[in-house]
Amino acid sequence: MRSDDEAPAEAEPATEPAAPSSETELAPGEAHAMSLVTEPPDDSDEPPLTPPGNPARPWAYLWALVALVPVFLLMAADRHFTFSVPLGFIAIALASFAILDAIGSFDDAHASNGALPSLRALAPRLLELGGAAVALVVSLRLAVAGSLPWPVWSSGVLVTGSMIWLLLAL
Q: Could you tell me the pTM of the whole model?
């Protein structure tokens, strides 16, 4: 953007002189703008700015739809069931996986910079994640049931602490 103190920039000469009409003469900036519009795009051998994406899989959207039907039915039901929330969570997770698979998110080549960790190396972390998930579910169930002493304080501390533990374990 030009400030008022700067002199106007000189326009580059156009490759083809524009034929001014007899009534009005084009200003140098307008002639340059007209030459940019009329010039064909440069067909150079530059690489594209973004790499080509993975091919889409439209049939995976069907799996997402199949996973979302139980979620819709759970939310539309007047009656609440004991396992409505876990079933809805699992169905949403499956639908999310299906959509990510449909857009090709899992098709990239594996990085060859290092070996994949073994299950034995991951076992302590997975055990901690499972323990944190169980602690969160138990603390939420106890808070909802109202069976904790000093329910406001203990529920707040237990639910918040177990949620933080779960997020740190991820």
A: 0.42
CA–CA gap between residue 10 and residue 13 (Å, rounded):
9
- CA–CA distance from 11 to each of 8, 28, 33 (Å)? 9, 6, 9
Number of neighbours of residue 136 by Cβ within 10 angstroms? 19
Give CA–CA dist 26/86, Å, rounded: 70
Structure tokens of 90?
């699992």
Tell the burial category of 162 from Cβ atoms under 10 Å away from its Cβ (0-12, 13-18, 19+).
buried
Instruction: Please write the tens of the pLDDT for every residue from 95-130.
Output: 999 988 888 777 766 655 667 778 888 889 999 999
Tell me if residue 135 falls in helix, strand or coil: helix
- Closest among 61, 84, 52 to 71, alpha carbons compared: 84
- Judge contact between 89 and 67, C-beta under 8 A: no
Task: Say which residues have a Cβ less than 8 Å from residue 162's Cβ, sequence separation at least 6.
Answer: 132, 135, 136, 138, 139, 140
